[in-house]
Specification:
Elements (H helix, E strand, L loop, with lengths): L1 E2 L4 H12 L7 E2 L3 H6 L9
Parallel strand pairs: 1-2
Length: 46
């Protein structure tokens, strides 16, 4: 999944991933800040 603040950079990242051969590519249209406020959304940290 790609994300950014407004969607433009995320769309470019998703297009690059598809072009690289990935077939399950998604764009989260809201910001990452919105994502982390929702406790049901996973965040992987390492």
């Amino acid at each position: 999944m790609t994300h950014c603040e407004g969607g433009g950079r995320a769309a470019l990242g998703a297009a690059a991933a598809v072009r690289a051969g990935f077939d399950d590519v998604r764009v989260y249209y809201l910001s990452f800040g919105d994502w982390v406020r929702d406790e049901s959304c996973p965040v992987v940290r390492d």
